[in-house]
Design brief:
The protein is of the alpha/beta class. It has 13 helices and ten strands. Strand 3, helix 5 and strand 4 form a beta-alpha-beta unit. Helix 2 runs parallel beside helix 13 (308-317), helix 7 (126-136) packs antiparallel against helix 8 (157-168) and helix 11 runs parallel beside helix 12.
């Protein structure tokens, strides 16, 4: 966020503009989306102290409810003013070490949507694998068809990651995986089957512990593919097998599906129908749209921004500017 915009937002906030907007939109519930809660120079995440700063702000201005309670209230036409639900994607280990202790401190309900193959230690989340390749490359330049030369220098990691990531979003799952492992070969590195720190997942025992303490665990599929690109049998596998794994390990059948990447084009009618057939009762997107209780398989979310003023601004106005590069 630019310095000028920060100054303007400070003025608007000091004049009561944020409070006024929150009041106007108090009956429009918001679902907030988080991913990584860690401080790392080369991994995109929100530092734990900044996360707690956001949670403290939420505690003062919103009524935090579970997404299940929000859906129940919406069905009964009794949504509480300033309702906000907290959701987390993927299931990295820093949720257990950093996010969950803070959520418990504030006694906030939350939902975590896990990629079960990732939890099993057999699947890399592909954006993580891409970052791992760039961080550990033994070559300065990677040549990629249709993209040209991609720098692996530390000062270029963020740009290179987004450039390659945006390209990966245009590929099928098989083509994307082939590209990633070709990049690893070109970078002259070996990739372990199990994701390595800081890209490792929570464990099933940790999930069991948090589930006993009140965490709701939903599905983020088995291998994190773009669901709308899959053949029907693979689509049903991703939805059903992930739910089965959660039931097996936690003793509770998940009712929520969080669509990988979560763009509107990733969520076809076939995906929604398959989700319903698999026993899910709601679905989460990765983009914001106004909450609508007649479209509970297309629930929009606001991504929690690192910039605190922008974070407060998006919560006040219930709108988010989506950058051209947007990898989930």
């Amino acid at each position: 966020m630019s310095t000028i915009k920060k100054i303007l937002l400070r003025i608007i906030e000091n004049l009561g503009g944020f409070q006024l907007l929150r009041s106007i939109k108090k009956n429009d519930p918001v679902v907030l989306m988080y991913h990584r809660i860690l401080k790392d120079d080369f991994v995109n995440g929100l530092a734990p102290q900044e996360f707690e700063k956001q949670i403290a702000y939420i505690s003062k201005h919103f009524n935090v409810v579970s997404i299940e309670d929000l859906l129940r209230d919406a069905k009964n036409n009794c949504v509480k003013p300033y309702s906000l639900a907290l959701t987390f994607d993927d299931g990295h280990n820093d949720f257990y070490t950093h996010a969950w202790p803070i959520l418990k401190k504030y006694n906030f309900p939350a939902s975590l949507y896990i990629t079960t193959g990732f939890i099993d230690g057999t699947t890399w989340l592909w954006p993580d694998l891409l970052k791992y390749i760039l961080l550990n490359s033994n070559t300065a330049i990677l040549k990629v068809e249709n993209l040209g030369d991609i720098s692996t220098h530390k000062t270029e990691h963020h740009i290179s990651w987004h450039k390659l990531g945006d390209h990966c979003l245009t590929l099928s799952t098989d083509a994307r995986n082939s590209l990633l492992y070709k990049l690893a070969d070109d970078a002259k590195i070996s990739v372990s089957e199990t994701p390595q720190p800081p890209f490792h997942s929570v464990t099933w025992p940790q999930l069991q512990e948090m589930h006993r303490e009140g965490l709701v665990v939903g599905s983020h599929t088995v291998t994190h593919p773009i669901l709308s690109s899959l053949a029907i049998e693979n689509l049903h596998y991703e939805l059903a097998a992930s739910a089965s794994a959660i039931q097996q390990h936690l003793g509770a059948t998940p009712i929520g599906i969080c669509y990988p990447n979560g763009r509107p084009e990733d969520i076809s009618e076939a995906v929604i129908k398959a989700a319903e057939l698999s026993g899910y009762t709601y679905g989460l997107m990765g983009r914001y749209s106004r909450f609508n209780n007649t479209r509970i398989f297309n629930i929009g979310r606001i991504a929690a921004n690192k910039d605190f003023f922008y974070f407060k601004w998006t919560l006040a106005r219930r709108k988010q500017d989506i950058p051209s590069s947007y990898i989930q």
